[in-house]
Amino acid sequence: MSTFVEPLNIIITGVGGQGNVLASQVVSVAAAVAGYRVVVGETFGVSQRGGSVMSHVRISKDKPYGPLIPRGRAGVIAGFEPLETLRVMVNYANPDTVTIMNDRPNYPLGCLLGEDKYPDPARIEETIRKLVARVHRLPATELAKEAGSPLAANMVMTGALAGSGLLPFGREYLTATIELLFKDSVRDLNLAAFELGYRQLAG
Amino acid sequence: MGVCKEQPGVRVALTGNESIARGALEAGVAYAASYPGSPTAEVLGTLAKVAGEFNLYVEWSVNEKVAMEGAAAASFTGLRSLVVMKADGLNVALDFASALALSGTRGGMVIVVGDDPSSHSSVREEDSRNLCKALHLPIWEPSSVQEAKDMTRAAFDLSEQLKLPVVVRCVTRVCHASGDVELGELTRPERRPVFGRDDRVITFSIQLHAQLEQKLSRAAAEASDSFFNGYSGPANARRLVIASGPSAMYALEALDMLGLAGGVGVLKLGTTWPLPETLLLNYLKNASEVVFAEEVEPFVEDNVMALAAGHWNELGSIKFYGKRSGHVAGPAGAGIGELDPDVLAGSLAKIFDVPWAGQTMLTSREAEELLGEKMPGRELALCAGCPHRASFWAIRTALELDGREGVVLGDIGCYTLGIVRTGYYLLQTMHCMGAGVGIAGGLGKLNRFGFNKPVITVVGDSTFYHAAVPALINARYNRANFMCVVLDNETTAMTGHQPHPGRQTTATGGPADTVYMEEIIRGLNIPYAISDPYDVDATINAVCDMLQLSGPRVLILRRTCALAAVKGKEKNRVYVDWDKCIGDDCGCGRFCSKVFACPANIWDAEHGKARIDEAVCNGCGVCATLCPQQAIVVERTVE
Ligand code: SF4
Ligand code: SF4
Q1: Measured between CB atoms, does B371 come within 8 Å of chain A?
Q2: 3-state class of B463 per DSSP?
Q3: Best of B590, B612, B632, B638 for a ligand 1 pocket test (most atoms within 8 Å of beta carbon)
Q4: Domains of chain A in sequence order
Q5: CA spacing 20 to 30 A to B546: which of A179, B50, B290, B434?
Q6: Which residues have C-beta within 8 Å of that of residue A120, sequence separation ≥ 6?
Q7: Is the predicted ipTM greater than 0.85, yes or no?
Q8: B547-591 pLDDT per residue, tens
Q9: Which residues of B361-383 are buried (b: 16+ CB within 10 A; e: fewer)?
Q10: Do A66 and B341 lie within an 8 Å CB cutoff?
């Protein structure tokens, strides 16, 4: 586990419907159980309906923080979607921000209608690599399908976050939280997805 | 679940809304009522889940005014009650609230109002504090998830002491935040409602106004000692930030970022009305520069400046910075939109004249230069498979066929997105719950002046019960000429699928006496028809037919919300048969993705063919019925 700099600022970003809120919930519940102070700033509401969504998760030893991460101060960005990852980086990344990105695009309406063009995902990745030192790209949606459903990409990403070694607590806190929050087949699916994501980064 | 953990002192992760619910449980609430509205929608749902365990009465009410009346009734009998709404809901409840302030209450009664700075999920960013002040109600504002609980709990005590409802005003950034919360003790009081023959709760005398003012004076006197007001910074600070709500946290972080933390004090106000005057004067007397940080209107700012004006001879000269002076301002201007650490850092840097360049690594333009192309925006879209998209499609097509340039009016719900591209820009008005039907009634009476266009107004099922029925009665009575389309997705989808009077279950999952909208409409003697929006052709025909009628009429387009329909079920598998899809050559102009525009109808540019994004598709099958080549295949797993 790498050294823990206070506070650990994590941004989880994606598109409404991708399960951002659940991913940030898993991280925050685990952090609280592990004895850390945690606050999550969440934007949901209309943004459930296909807009950009972003959760700010702030973990610290004992100091309370506000729910919004200041610009340029994200320690980790977990992007569920390439374009949104880049968009969030513009505002919140610094050269040391660790970036974990799902490679699967989710097309904005303007692109579907042919009025806008979705940037080439390879170029997005290239751009991100120019901006920050550490980037992990993974096929989270494909891995989630492997685990049983493309909708579990959020848990693949949560597993990847754990696998990055940046969280100040062990993965067992996260898996215990998943077991607490979900039941039966959904729980198994999410655990399997988590595992696949974890292995991508932890090797 | 954390909200009903017994051990006091334990820390658990809760959302702000759960934290409010926990506070009410700790205070021994007995009765809770609400109409769902973001950002506070989840408070009541949380209580509903534990209603059995704690022996609570919890209801989703038909609207906020009725919710408040019910909660007041419980308070009149001595029980503790909670009513929860968004700022817009307070507008609905205002008439009763102003009377209730005068009559007063008995058992502790707390009104939780969710304000939505920056309108994340609302049509406006109304600051309810000015209204609450006009109502003569005390206002408390939590700055964190922890405080959301602690304040809710304590507000019951204050209410009981004053015999007056207390408002907890909670903004989106607290309601929808989550964080670790230290739990307090749960109380399970014995509850015996008392309302004897001699009990009177009446709003009818000028005396009551005098009593109300006395209650507020008492609240003001206590506020200065309140645990919810706090100061951090140097003693006798000459530079002072007065902040409320989450802005207090932002201010601390901003000062830190600017390197000013040691030299500037932050006075956090939790009791924002009536003001803690003694406390404020104590800090103001040393201050020469005061900055206000609050969302949205300059509420604390105006009231503190008025206080300072009244005490000018004790205070010496103070320079005030805030929204009035234009110094505390986000990108959209002073008093517009929510604050954050960056907005405050920028504002404080200017006020205190320290360098601050912001901290982003690059601008959007620079990112686009690196990328070599534009980053397309992402606008809101109805979910894949949303029945509203199909309904809007049918209405739009029917109006084209009709050819009389019919107008379409909107209302509040997911279908409000009919004002943007995903709803084909169909809606031409959009105001507040039920307004579309009233406006349609007005337009429907303008024939005598030569306004002869057909008028259609769309309203959701939950909104129908909440606010559309009086407007329909008015329309029947006055013979207004319009067509009301009820987009009945059998739930309150927008706020998280709460039940409403048309459903079979109550808030706590018990059986309900369903109030069928057809019965109401029949009772009003208004002609109506029902169609399934997924059956696009039948729905177009139904709209066309009904456009021929006159007087008020109702078309119910009934189909369960796509999200609710697929929850916990296997979805239909939908795919494009590439042998049939003629792709770029299609005369349809990419009908499925370009025109109907379901977000799951994507385009495979490499092959020049349509594709279905299986991670997004909800399997409604509508695109399959619209595709002119019948290239889209639906494998049904759900009925
Ligand atoms: S079946 Fe077609 S219209 Fe329905 S959700 Fe899937 S892609 Fe969208
Ligand atoms: S939540 Fe339901 S009603 Fe709302 S946009 Fe999605 S499918 Fe439509």
Answers
A1: yes
A2: helix
A3: B612
A4: 8-200 (3.40.920.10)
A5: B434
A6: B373
A7: yes
A8: 999 999 999 999 999 999 988 788 899 999 999 998 877 666 677
A9: bbeeeebbeebeeebbebbbbbb
A10: yes
